[in-house]
Design goal:
Chain lengths: 289, 237
């Protein structure tokens, strides 16, 4: 309790250093909390996107309905298939008419010259090559279209976002570490004479270190709470806008228990981070004192 | 109680600060360490508080080798030793009471005991009326008495004084010297490093005279004339 009081007094006596430490930690935690939310949601978002691309197989013009139905049934029974949609010649014509308004062209095109097709989506991106293989070998299939680049692009962007998040966290984490080290170092340097006296009086290492360690822990806790608060306000503010995106809407609102777990874990990391950083800094200065 | 056995301390490539120092101090003894500046008095005291470790030889305190105390246990060793410095080394942001209480807080004494002990110590050094003054408001003599009270707070077995009268006028010097005498009479072993002749003539105690890091002479008993180095070695043998 005495060490905590000493730490609080030290914080009160150096408001600008405290503000700098809390500000940088708050920014770090804000980015960390935002990034962790994106990461938690990204798997679900990725899954959503992975199920969007379809493999389309066009039947030969003379393929009968029984062959098409057989293939449809067979594909529906595959465990890795998410959805199967058959486009008949008539439906294909209807789509064509919606897309093309030129009357001359519409007069020339009839259902007979349009192929029926089957659209198959997988449960995830890894099942798509297998679906393509199944459709390639199926009876009556003329051509299989599979836009592999779309999946690649999604994976690439997700990975890119992850890398950006990790890089930001590493840079901000290092910056926070150094700033707390410098602030603790400055405080220890100011107290160098007092530390020397206390050591001669028989103070243990912990007795000398404790106020600084507590101070670091307070920075960690406050930084975490401010960062989380800012993230939460931002999340509340952005929720209506984010809900307008169909793919993100299913993830909102974020369950409160998830947010509480996030706050708990973040604050624990803050406490450990603050204590460790201050401890290292005091240890270094004590060796020189 | 305290033994230095062939102790040498060398800093880097410089000539040794002390070389081949051997002597013993009994419990309750009052020992003056004399010699010019740089003769090795402070080094000797710092070896005892384990601020330094000897390059060779062994320092024992209360039957235990000081050299072998683990770093993590040094604070326990220091709690048995009180130290008084020439520059008082009081914490300026704490008042007289708090400065003395600090030594007791460090050893986790309960508040009631701290209050009792600080009151007694202030009475001993005759500074009861200055309890709430800050070091900047004290005279040199008063500050040194606070420093002595703080050193005595944990009831150490030995009191080390490194030129405690170096910054004081003759009147205060004598007062401080008499205070050390009183402390010694109460049973505390005192090692007093000084080159102040007025103290040495006022208090007749054993003296070890250091010269360039070596023992030049050691008077084993009160009132005796200094023995030469050869005599001391023969006596030890």
């Amino acid at each position: 309790m005495k060490h905590l009081t000493t730490a609080l007094t030290a914080i009160r006596r150096s408001p600008y250093q405290t503000f700098a430490a809390v500000l940088i930690l708050s920014i770090t935690f804000f980015v960390g909390y935002c990034f962790s939310l994106v990461m938690l949601g990204s798997e679900q978002m990725l899954r959503y996107f992975e199920t969007r691309p379809q493999i389309t197989a066009f039947f030969k013009l003379n393929t009968d309905q029984t062959t098409i139905d057989t293939l449809e049934k067979s594909m529906r029974n595959k465990p890795y298939v998410n959805q199967v949609n058959v486009i008949s010649k008539e439906k294909a014509l209807e789509i064509y008419r919606q897309d093309n308004k030129d009357p001359l062209l519409l007069e020339l095109v009839t259902a007979d010259i349009l192929p029926a097709s089957i659209e198959v989506s997988g449960k995830d991106a890894t099942s798509l090559p297998q679906i393509k293989k199944d459709l390639d070998g199926a009876a009556g299939v003329d051509q299989v279209l599979y836009n592999q680049e779309v999946i690649g692009a999604i994976n690439k962007w997700t990975q890119f976002l992850r890398n950006i998040g990790v890089a930001s966290m590493v840079i901000l984490g290092t910056e926070s570490f150094l700033i707390i080290m410098i602030i603790s170092g400055m405080k220890v340097a100011i107290q160098k004479r007092a530390i020397q006296i206390m050591r001669i009086l028989g103070a243990s290492r912990w007795y000398i270190k404790a106020p600084f360690v507590y101070e670091g822990m307070i920075y960690g806790i406050v930084g975490s709470l401010v960062g989380w608060g800012a993230m939460y306000i931002g999340l509340l503010y952005l929720t209506p806008w984010l809900q307008s995106f169909h793919e993100v809407a299913s993830l909102l609102p974020v369950p409160p228990e998830l947010l509480l777990i996030q706050l708990g874990v973040g604050t624990l990391i803050g406490v450990i981070f603050g204590a460790l950083t201050s401890s290292i800094s005091v240890q270094r200065m004590m060796r020189r004192a | 109680m305290i033994t230095f056995a062939a102790v040498t301390k060398r800093f880097g490539e410089n000539p040794p600060a002390i070389e081949g120092i051997s002597f013993e101090v009994d419990k309750g003894e009052f020992l003056f360490l004399t010699g010019h500046s740089g003769s090795g008095k402070t080094t000797l005291l710092k070896l005892l508080t384990r601020e330094y470790t000897p390059t060779s030889g062994e320092v024992t305190f209360n039957g235990k080798s000081v050299n072998k105390i683990r770093k993590s246990q040094v604070h326990h060793h220091r709690r048995a030793i009180g130290v008084v410095f020439q520059d008082y080394r009081l914490l300026n942001e704490l008042n007289v009471w708090e400065n003395i209480a600090l030594a007791l807080q460090i050893v986790n004494k309960p508040q009631t005991e701290i209050e009792e002990r600080v009151t007694d110590l202030l009475r001993l050094v005759e500074l009861t009326d200055k309890a709430y003054s800050f070091p900047s408001q004290l005279s040199g003599g008063e500050a040194q008495r606070v420093s002595i009270a703080r050193a005595l707070a944990t009831a150490p077995m030995v009191l080390l004084a490194d030129e405690p009268t170096g910054n004081l006028d003759p009147q205060n010097t004598l007062k401080i010297a008499q205070l050390f005498e009183k402390i010694n009479e109460l049973g505390t072993t005192v090692l007093f490093a000084t080159h102040d002749l007025s103290i040495l003539s006022a208090l007749k105690h054993r003296r070890i005279h250091l010269e360039k890091g070596k023992i030049e002479s050691d008077t084993k008993e009160k009132e005796e004339e200094p023995h030469t180095k050869t005599t001391v070695q023969v006596e030890t043998l």
